[in-house]
Design a protein that fits this description.
This protein is α+β, with helices and mostly antiparallel strands and 834 residues long. It is built from 24 helices and 18 strands. The strands form six sheets. The chain has a five-stranded mixed sheet, covered by helices on one side.
Length: 834
């Protein structure tokens, strides 16, 4: 009993240490006091309490787990739905983009692909063998150029190309060349991202070697979406038709290595004077550095840049396992010594010949040149087509094997160049690139043919490269030299004659005369000779700018802007300006009885077999009436005899011409002609600024006179054709301001007379009185006041109205000042390249 009791108590004590769940059991044991009851109570209590707690815990854990699972499930569902929604949104956006792209560019895509299929399909390996070099001949059919410095091709088969050159190009230009099918997708994606990032500006390339080949052979170097798409289609088709070996062969024989060298063999001979298979690894890498950007990596101009890129190429070859470390170290350490001489070039002649020949080929292919457009969009589309066609035809000159016959007379070319150089010899200031700052340009045309016989685009400098040809690439303000073309000759067409009286006077809203002198009523001839701005302005307003400028447009002046249709253009105030070539061809039309011939130096172009590609026919256009042109010529002879060009007359030849000077003396012009030749000269700074001694009759006039005296020497001094005056005497008198004044007939004094003897007829007859001086007293308006310097003062600064007249040492003036801010230097005369 005691033991049972003790055991029961012990059990009760142990159970009391539980968390309270077993307290009922202890109580039960105490109350029952028996072993059996106690044990039963203990067992029942333990069993019931412990099981219940464990079950609840398990239930709680299960419920918690289920809740977590449900929560995780809902989260996963949300994530899936979010991802799905994002995917759907992007899919819709992509689909919309594709639809938009297809709507806008779908037809273009199809066209580009079809064009690529045809171009590549029609190609053969001969397409890439640019073997035939074009030859250029002067007016005496003497070889003038083998396109010097522009194209020199030596074709190599793949087996004759050093493998180090192939490996160098792959390492630096296109590491996946042997793997891709013409296009590197990842590189194009990077380029596209950069394109979007820079808002449409192409900042990095993605062209594979195959794409570069496609561009070089079939396309231009224009940076645009369209060209890129065409390039991709062409590259894919090229990869389908030709092997990798062929593509690499075509590529290394066609890429440009600067300074006129196309192909690696031509570059090797040009820079190292030996075949490419005799070059060292370092020299080959040096050549392979150039094509990426032939301007930046030009070995003649920027050898340090070429050297840095050579080292980069060698490092890439080492990393790619193409060369060993020892080969790398040796190649990097090698000093590069070029063995070349800069080619001698008739650079102004050659650039103009290439320009004319390219345009002749464009025309032969059906391209229609325009200088008037319906809208900005129309002009933009034309410019795009022009550029593509020009680049394509220009390329063909380099490998088409043409025989180009020109009108260039090298003797006259040398005389014109010498005249420019000698006249401007005292101006020695140069730019940081070594180019003379004070420049001149001149063009000479044979009046019989209308073709250019000499063209000087600037002062001669041994730069070794082709430079800006200002004679046709620069557009400057023409000053008063434009007046005969858009004011006076059109006015002669509209009823004026040289002796018409006009009013040279100051008026509100009009211009000032450069000399500050106003002569009142004077003959139109005198207004031209003295370059009176007020008269030109009035006549131009009478004509209207639309009519005046139409004459320039008919003569293919290329930079007439919508903002030029104002009276200021009558004095030479244009938005962009005119070129010496345009001005000279315009004056040549005056000498040619108003018939304009598009200026060119191309006589004919033939292929290598003698077939005529471009014939020698000159297109003609009657721009001015014959009589108006002859009147203008007659008046312009007076400019040289009596006006702003006084002192520029030739030794033994009649001549006509006109000066032109812009405000602040930034541009000076003289354009004139004899019955044989027309020559135009411009002088000024490339970046327009004042030159105190510059005027139409100073440096430009002296260049013109020196050259024209030389080329007209020994020719017969024949007169210009005379114009016809169809006016009646009455009309002439009216135009000349002559007003007939009737003579008063004397009244007889009454006298007494005897009564006459009657006769059969009683008639008194009075004898008429003879009128004095032919019956009319003529009153003529004075044409010009007496003045020691002919009414002009070159030293008169006009007190701010015209700080830059065409003053000369002989007292003439030719400026374009105005009181209302209009002047002949409008537009700044910035240099611009077509």
């Amino acid at each position: 009993m005691e033991n049972n009791k003790s055991s029961s108590q012990n059990n009760s004590t142990r159970n009391s240490n539980t968390r309270g769940t077993n307290r009922s059991t202890g109580s039960g044991n105490s109350r029952n006091g028996g072993n059996s009851s106690g044990n039963n109570g203990y067992r029942n209590g333990m069993g019931s309490g412990t099981g219940s707690s464990s079950k609840k815990d398990n239930q709680n854990m299960t419920a918690s787990n289920k809740h977590k699972k449900k929560k995780n499930k809902r989260l996963r569902q949300k994530v899936r739905l979010t991802v799905l929604a994002i995917f759907l949104v992007f899919s819709l956006l992509f689909l919309a983009g594709c639809l938009f792209f297809d709507y806008k560019y779908g037809d273009a895509f199809v066209k580009y692909q079809n064009d690529a299929n045809q171009l590549v399909g029609d190609s053969t390996p001969e397409t890439f063998r640019q073997m035939e070099t074009s030859l250029v001949y002067d007016s005496n059919k003497k070889l003038l150029s083998v396109l010097k410095g522009e194209k020199d091709v030596y074709y190599l088969s793949y087996d004759n190309i050093p493998q180090s050159a192939v490996q160098a190009m792959i390492s630096i230009e296109d590491k996946k060349f042997l793997e891709h099918g013409g296009v590197d997708l990842s590189a194009n994606i990077r380029a596209f991202v950069a394109l979007v990032k820079h808002r449409g500006e192409i900042t990095q390339g993605a062209s594979t070697i195959t794409q570069q080949l496609a561009r070089n052979i079939f396309l231009s170097n224009e940076v645009s979406y369209e060209r890129k798409l065409k390039e991709i289609f062409l590259a894919v088709d090229l990869e389908k038709k030709y092997s990798k070996r062929q593509i690499m062969e075509f590529y290394l024989n066609n890429i440009y290595f600067a300074n006129g060298y196309y192909g690696i063999q031509a570059a090797s001979k040009g820079y190292f004077s030996k075949d490419v298979n005799k070059l060292s690894l370092s020299q080959i890498a040096y050549l392979c550095a150039i094509p990426n950007n032939p301007t930046i990596y030009d070995p003649l101009d920027y050898p340090e840049n070429t050297l840095k890129r050579r080292d980069r190429i060698l490092y890439q070859m080492f990393k790619d396992g193409k060369i060993s470390e020892a080969e790398y170290d040796q190649a990097v350490a090698e000093k590069i010594k070029l063995k070349t001489k800069k080619p001698s070039r008739n650079n102004y002649v050659e650039t103009y010949i290439f320009y004319c020949a390219t345009r002749a080929l464009m025309e032969q292919q059906g391209f229609v040149f325009k200088n008037q457009f319906k809208s900005d969009a129309d002009k933009k589309e034309y410019d795009k087509e022009y550029k593509e066609t020009y680049n394509k035809c220009q390329k063909s000159l380099y490998y088409g094997g043409y025989r180009i016959y020109t009108s260039i007379d090298m003797k006259k070319q040398e005389q014109l160049q010498k005249s420019v150089d000698d006249t401007l010899a005292n101006f020695t200031e140069k730019t940081k690139d070594g180019i003379y700052k004070f420049q001149g340009a001149a063009v000479s045309i044979d009046n019989k043919t209308g073709r250019v016989i000499a063209i000087v685009g600037g002062r001669y400098q041994n730069t070794g490269g082709l430079t800006l040809n200002r004679a046709y690439q620069s557009f400057r303000q023409p000053g008063s030299s434009i007046k005969p073309l858009i004011v006076y000759t059109p006015s002669f067409e509209n009823g004026y004659y040289p002796d018409n009286v006009v009013n040279d006077h100051k008026f509100e809203g009009g211009p000032s005369n450069s000399d500050g002198v106003y002569l009142g009523k004077i003959p139109l001839r005198t207004a031209v000779e003295k370059s009176k701005n007020t008269v030109a302005w009035q006549l131009y307003e009478e004509l209207t700018p639309q009519v005046g400028l139409s004459y320039l447009l008919n003569m293919n002046f290329n930079r007439i802007d919508k903002n030029d249709y104002y009276p200021a253009t009558s004095l030479g105030g244009f938005t962009y300006g005119v070129s010496p070539l345009e001005m000279t061809s315009g004056y040549a039309a005056l000498e040619n009885d108003g018939v304009f011939r598009k200026p060119t130096c191309i006589v004919s172009i033939k292929d290598s077999e003698g077939n005529v590609i471009v014939d020698g026919k000159m297109a003609k256009k009657q721009v001015y009436s014959q009589n108006a042109a002859r009147m203008m010529t007659d008046v312009l002879t007076g400019v040289i005899k009596n006006g702003t060009g006084r002192g520029l007359g030739l030794d033994n030849m009649i001549s006509a011409g006109k000066t032109g000077t812009t405000n602040d003396k930034k541009d000076g012009w003289f354009v004139g002609y004899t019955p044989y030749y027309t020559t135009g000269v411009w002088v000024g700074y490339d970046s327009p600024k004042t030159s105190n001694q510059l005027a139409g009759a100073t440096y430009p006039g002296n260049i013109w006179k020196t050259y024209m005296n030389e080329i007209n020497k020994g020719l017969e001094n024949v007169p210009f054709s005379s114009y016809t005056d169809t006016r009646s005497d009455e009309e002439k008198a009216k135009d000349q301001g002559i007003t007939p004044t009737p003579t008063e007939t004397p009244t007889p004094t009454p006298t007494e007379t005897p009564t006459p003897t009657p006769t059969p007829t009683d008639t008194v007859t009075e004898e008429p009185t003879e009128p004095g001086d032919g019956g009319t007293d003529i009153t003529e308006t004075p044409t010009e006041p007496e003045n020691p310097d002919n009414g002009e003062n070159p030293d008169n600064p006009d007190n701010g109205t015209d700080p830059g007249g065409d003053g000369t040492n002989n007292g003439s003036g030719d400026g374009q000042g105005t009181d209302n801010g209009v002047n002949g230097d409008n537009g700044g005369g910035d240099i611009s390249t077509p």
